[in-house]
Amino acid sequence: MPQLVLYRKYRPQTFAEVINQKNTIKTLANALKQGQISHAYLFAGPRGTGKTSVARLLAKALNCQNRKENNCEVCNQCESCKEINEGRSLDLIEIDAASNRGIDDIRALRENVRFPPIKSKYKVFIIDEAHQLTKEAFNALLKTLEEPPAYIVFILATTEPEKLPATILSRVERYDFKKLTLEDTIGRLKYICEQEKIKFEAEALRLIALYSEGGLRDAESLLGQISLVTNQNITKESVEGLVGAINLEKIKRFIDILNKKDKVKAIEFINKIYDDGFNLEIFNKEVIDYLRKLLLLKISPSLGEVLEKEATEEEMTTLFKQAQNWETVSLERLLRKLVEVQWQLKNSPVATLPLELFISEELI
Q: In the chain, where are the structural domains located?
């Protein structure tokens, strides 16, 4: 099953299926039960956290023909729900602002607003990546948001709400979506594997969840991709091979080399993993994450509770032991520098050069 199909197949079809957005769902549910419908919403948060899925659920709830007045859940059986689920509703218009960002596109939208819904109570417009609209497009949209017809509902979704003009923000009801926890993502991946009869190693699902950084869509897409490559038998090695992930032992070894200030071994290590085909951006990112864990433990061992959701018991034991070999000020200095290196790796004419310079300058 292709990875995109996996993601679509397991898209939430009811509010109860949405993961880790309890406050948002509770507030929307209460508004629906009480009939307090806003003419414009803003769904803001990291990618893959369910903004578009919840937007479609809200559109379904507004037009579900069988939804009770004191309930928020949709039936998924009426014609309106089926049309939205199948992507053929004429009263739900989805716009990708990344490719339809100009004033002419918004003018076309404003023209569309003039016409009432064909079959439904509400005509719903979902504008994805809304922050990518041009200044002129925002000005044109503002006029529509100021006095929309009663049958119109706008839902703006964005990963960068700070880029929206204050005039737009003042006219929308805002909901902030949170990144999924590691446990939530792993739990969802496990559920999908069980439903699809995909064999898996627990550590493999954990690596997928870590790599997706709280984005469920990315995690589900990667799961589908790896299941195709591995003939539905997902192992830790198959995940590492596909995403270029570096196993924990390699990271630990590199951290030890940094602590010993061995420039030659550090540079040899970087070039070896690069020659082995590992992505240095991913490697550097994992080194940053590891050093961050050590820093938190140096600040206070009690902060280990923060890290327990991100690491196994065995890994925590290793982290506590390794943290004893570091000074807080050294960890802080390395982390600041490696964050700079992360940006340099994207544009370096020589792939290994930013890390080599870091090693040469920092290991004094």
A: 21-176, 182-243, 248-362
